[in-house]
Write a structure and sequence with these properties.
416 residues, alpha/beta, Cytidine Deaminase, domain 2, Rossmann fold, 12 helices
Amino acid sequence: MTGRVEDAAAVVRERAPGQAPAVGVVLGSGLGAFADTLAGLVRIPYADLPGMPGARVPGHAGNLCLGAASGVPIACLQGRAHAYEGHPPEKVVFGVRLLAALGCRAVLLTNAAGGIGRGLAPGDLLLLRDHLNLMGSSPLVGPNDPSGPRFPDLTHAYSPPLRAAARAAAAELGLELREGVYAAMLGPAYETPAEVRMLARLGADAVGMSTVPEVIALAHLGVPVAAVSCITNLAAGISERPLAHAEVEEVARRTRDRFSALLGGWIARVPTALAATDASAAGAPGPEGSLEELLAAARAAREHAHAPYSGFRVGAAIRGASGAVYRGCNVENASFGATICAERGAVMQLVAAGEARLTEVAVFVEGGTPAMPCGVCRQVLWELGAAAVRVISATPSARRETTLGALLPEPFELAR
């Protein structure tokens, strides 16, 4: 298989001389129009690439597209192969292995999926934080390819820095980006209501028939990966409407503008996210960009604050040990004791997601001087953090940075 991938890469280099993609993108059902917007577009049909399986499902154009998005050189797979079409697992992942062979240092995956999680609706965008592989196969079965380990670790299969970059792009655009777990089924039949109930109990928020083999193959190669699902329908048993692929394509088309905006902003942040990955691997602190993304999340959370009594709106964002970011805003109540601070709201989100440690805290307030967390919040943060955890508070015009260890003994003052 490695030889065939290299043969395909040689054709690409011949057809698109000078192209050096840094980021790979896989476009799922009905989402392929993004590739048509690339600057300096070079389009190569899959049929021209030796070993590359065709994309035969409606909504998958079947082209490798090279060009630039947000000033970043990228390579897009305009459609993918699926196991349910009869392709063996190693053929299903041929495309992403080709992206890696072309030099892509990160790959962003997209798909159309059925919504399972509470509150999800057609048209929602879901950032994947984990998956359930229920396809009954893996692209790594068989003799091990020496390009990767026999037993790759999937603990952080969905790169925390790339996920943080997606959240920052969504916050800047004012887009809601939920997070959840994706369940991969073999297909091609849609799931039964009983299967959907099973998936919900296993912790799935969305279900589809792709993506997971690609994530596994890229993890084996050591290529950072992240993924977003476009929720195109509610899974069987949640909605009474019969499921149809035409509906999947139609909802994906309606979501095209929001999706393209998110993808463009996300791609622009990938170089910074890769720098964070490289710094982490070298044992160094991440770049300033990662802090900016945390502050952007806190600022976006502040927009939802409910402060009718004090008029003092606060947003907070904390980074968990996994790299995921959790947001909170203050919610006031006429009974003062029932008021929830922004920092504690973010902690609730972290704990509800199954995490127990935090690594960074950002607070954003409306104006005046930066306000640090109150005494109660400091104690809550201390119990989930450590003395060296960085805490930053910002307004539109000022910042203050400290650590939990230095902050805890300080008297609390509400800076206005």
